[in-house]
Amino acid sequence: MAEFGRPSVGIVGLGHIGASLALRLGRRGPLAVIDEDPEAVAWVRERTSATVGWDAVSAAEIVVVATPTPVVGDVLCALGERGARGLVLDVASVKRPVVDAAPAGLRHLSVHPMAGREGHGAASADPSIWDGASWAFVLHGSESDDDVATALEFVFGDAGAGAVVALDATAHDETLAVVSHLPHLLAAAMGRVLVADSGHPAAWWLGSGSLRDATRVARSDGARVAEMVVPNRDALTSAASVFRAELERLVADLEAPARLRADLDEAWVGASRVVADVVATETVEVRSDLARALLAVSEAGEAVIGFVAPRTVALARRATPTTS
Questions:
Q1: 3-130: what fold?
Q2: DSSP of 92-123
Q3: Domain boundaries defined on the chain
Q4: Rounded to two decimals, what is the model's pTM?
Q5: How many helices and strands in the chain, by DSSP H and E?
Q6: 278-285 and 312-318 strand pairing
Q7: What is the pLDDT of residue 4?
Q8: How far apart (Å, rounded) are the C-alpha atoms in residues 320 and 316?
Q9: Which residue has the higher pLDDT, 55 or 310?
Q10: Would you identify the CATH topology of the domain 173-253?
Q11: H-only helix segments in 165-232
């Protein structure tokens, strides 16, 4: 354990997410980084106390893999071959192929911070993206209590998490198709509409908050978005089909104002749950099977909003909106 009780951390990949985490950790404790782009490494080293190299990263007590999703499996195998003994956390946005690729014997836990903003590369790094972020822990239920506790201490402590939910890899990918990957496609579609037919030139001046919100993530790097959504194409195609049917229904509702109002009220309930108040429920001590306990908490619609070692968790739920 590093000085002051903070674990040493290694980061593989210094794009937007990896570099933002490096800035967040800053000089809090031993930090090692690696990236194939020497400019990204130099950028991070200028702003942190990080050392550089595979040996230092592999020796860290916690290793965060923040490379593009298509190469995460290769990185996990490389860490296994290098004898990494610390807890390895990948932050890939699609989990099934990553979990399947993880080598036996590697202390690996797949997590997903819902953090980031438009932009790419180390130069777009922003340590504030971690403040209060929700994290998904992808668990199968047999992970060691020590590894899960270490991950919880890290995300709530150094990473500043606001909430943690747990689900298996398939549920994660199906859920992210709806709450993350589909919105990227919708923003891109709206951006393409503006290119194809923006109407009067005054449109560029009249676009208000609704348009800016709807297109914000379309200003992300296209290659990075493609790397994120293509590996989840099956779940995303299914989610897109549901959206297409809902859009067609609302268009048809234009001829039936009463049904349109009812459907818009229902939409308000769904949209409001995203920003609903967080209501603390209880604090409990989990005596054993921490992974299974977290999965059960999330199945009940609650989240972990705090953790005190070795096994005390604070729970909360989202308030349920009922009317507009």
A1: Rossmann fold (3.40.50)
A2: -S--HHHHHHPPTT--EEEEEE----S--SGG
A3: 3-130, 173-253
A4: 0.91
A5: 14, 11
A6: antiparallel
A7: 46
A8: 12
A9: 55
A10: 6-phosphogluconate dehydrogenase C-terminal fold (1.10.3660)
A11: 169-176, 182-196, 203-206, 209-215, 222-229
